[in-house]
Amino acid sequence: MDLVEYQGKQYFARYGIPVSDGRVADTVEEAVAAAGEIGYPVVVKAQVQVGGRGKAGGVKLAADEIETRHYASEILGLAIGGHKVRRLWVESATDIAAEYYASFTLDRAAKKHVAIVSARGGIDIEQVAATDPQAIVSMHVDPLDGLDHDAARQLAGRAGLDPRAVEQVAAVLVDLYRCYVEGDADLVEINPLVLTAGGQVLALDAKVTLDDDAAFRHPEWSALEEIGDVDPRERLARERGLQYIGLDGSVGIIANGAGLAMSTLDVVNQVGGGAANFLDIGGGANADVMADALEVINTDPNVQVILVNIFGGIVRCDDVARGILRAIEEVKLSSPIVLRLDGTNSTEARKILDDRRPAGVIPELSMISAAKRAVEIAGERR
Amino acid sequence: MSIFVDESTRVIVLGLTGSQGRFHGLRNRDYGTKVVAGVTPGKGGQDVEGIPVYDTVAQALSREGADAAFVVVPPRAASEAILDCAAAGVGLVVCITEHIPAKDEALVAARLRREFPRTRLIGPNCPGVISPGRCNIGITAGDIALGGGPVGIVSRSGTLTYQALHELSRKGIGQTTCVGIGGDPVPGTTFVDVLEAFQADEETQAVMMIGEIGGDGEERAADYIAAHMTKPVVAYIAGVTAPEGRRMGHAGAIVSGSKGTAKAKIEALVGAGVVVGQNPTEAGELMVDVVRRLKDARS
Q1: What residues of chain B lie within 8 A of the CB of A343, using their CB?
Q2: Nearest CB neighbour to B280, from listed A142, A186, A263
Q3: A256 near B CB under 8 A
Q4: ipTM field
Q5: From the candidates B24, B79, B98, B103, which should be mutated to test the interface with A, based on the most A CB atoms within 10 A?
Q6: What angle separates helix A367-381 from helix A258-270, to the nearest 10 degrees?
Q7: Would B161 be classed as within a structural domain?
């Protein structure tokens, strides 16, 4: 789960990372009240999960109430990268002397955590990496050793920061590492991490991606609100515990396993069609999950045909077949199903389908023939 | 020869008394794998269809003798189960558990590296390892594999591993060993580890590699292939049409910018002399050509 800026800052603050005083505001009046409490000048910031907010006009400095009112009404409802702004974060303005960058994530190849620091913050770090790689320093952290202040100070020292900032940045790094590990984040990023004119180090932005697999040990995560637009199909899928991503083609796709689902998308594309979605029913799918998946796809008006591509491992094909039969009875499907089943108990599955011969279910023997058939049907029905 | 497992491999199953462990543990035994014991704390003394169950890994090992473990336990218990096996001296641990927190995986990797360097972990979140006709540890349906070689398979995805086995078997091409390394952020065994083993394995003459978007394991594999592999490699990379910046199920499958995209991976592999198929079926057909050429060269 990706947090928006203010949620990330609240997450940071729990681990002692210094952030500006701020308030959430969903209306112009709330923004004005927040600014009054904090004291002028303030920065009014759009809370959306996309980068480039500043360029899109989603971040404004307000000197007084009139400006706050003006900018808050301008930013609320603004569309940034396809996301409509519904919430603002109003915070105390900062007099910036220097902008840095700091993050922790996993280096998969090294199987260790990695700290990344740069004296060139405030801009896209990938751009810095491409044009000025010398400006970025990094260090592996072995999870068994953790990160101590000395190692953090060395890293900060190598980054070529203002000498006034080094000790404070080292302290931020130690706290940020704790936030990353104990907070079970896949990524924690501060860009910019600023040095104020008064010599204080402050996290001026926050990017935090939480590891959904660790939710069981973070009951507090359930209180985090989903900010911004969520595709209603994705919302329904999530409620049913399915991995779903909405796309814009006409072939609805259900497969088991992320790899096979991605591959199914590729093959549909190669035979001239377009996928309406990515849907992985996962490793432990049974009849219920299959019925849920069909119901989710059935809500998509773009779908002309549903391609079900299952290779049974843990998933048993006979369960999948029973799920399809039940879904056909319970949900009125508006599209035919092209079905390819292979692997565990596929013979039993074929027998179940042969016995019942359900209308609107077209069996195919291979992934490619199934994709071709589905794309043909989608073309005919359009 | 096969890699990592063979007909003499003795396997204990952690979680044999659970529904998943029972289903797959017994299926592995039916396939002919020497499943010698189960381990479930508190259930020592029971048996599952004649397979004795012990409370601890150490007990199971001292009584039955085993060199491999199959870990089928929930994500909260998986890290400890893997490390228990390593501490008891098990050389090969296959973990199929999905949804283990990334921090736990990183910690397991660090402890294996420092304290138990002789233990190889395959997975987590993987289908396991099968050497057709000899040994099957994991969740792969044994009947889709065909023995006799000459192809080794390594794959990051579960169901695509089955698809790859199926494509080769139905074309009459046997496999030496098929290793599913799993799609998680911290795989115990990497593409490069498996490629090294296949390169060293006499029976394996060609390798089928199945990758997907996210991470840089395929790019690293390409570097290894260019520098060290003399055996032909055919690859397929899933996710050519995946939208950027969206997660597609696997924690490992995150596309950001150009690095980690299918396009970048395919370019790296082609640059290393790998033949890349556009889909699993085409990759299978390309392997048919490779195997035919190998046979022609020998005759």
Answers
A1: 141, 144, 159, 162, 166
A2: A263
A3: yes
A4: 0.89
A5: B103
A6: 60
A7: yes
**Model confidence over B173-229: pLDDT tens digits?**
999 999 999 988 899 999 999 999 999 999 999 999 999 988 888 999 999 999 999
| Residue from A58, A56, A122, A64 nearest A93 by CA | A64
As for how many domains chain B has, the answer is 2
* Cβ-contact B219, B268 below 8 angstroms: yes
Q: Residue B103, CB half-sphere, CA atoms under 13 Å: how many?
A: 22
Domain that residue B186 falls in: 141-298
Would you say residue B216 lies in a domain?
A: yes
**Arch. (CATH architecture) of A96-224:** 2-Layer Sandwich (3.30)
- State pLDDT tens for residues A116-130: 999 999 888 878 888
Nearest to B279 among A263, A311, A343 (CB): A263
CB A305 within 8 A of CB A338: yes
Q: Which residues contact B108 (CB under 8 A, 6 or more apart)?
A: B79, B82, B83, B121, B186, B188
- How far A73 CA lies from chain B's nearest CA (Å)? 30
A232-381 fold: Rossmann fold (3.40.50)
B112 and B162 share a domain?
A: no
Q: What is the pLDDT of residues A275-322, one digit of tens each?
A: 999 999 876 667 788 888 999 999 999 999 999 999 887 778 888 898
- Map residue A100 onto helix, strand or coil: strand
B5 assigned to some structural domain = no
Domain map of chain A by residue range? 21-92, 96-224, 232-381
Q: How far is CA B131 from CA A231, B6, B147, B233, B267, in A?
A: 44, 7, 7, 19, 30
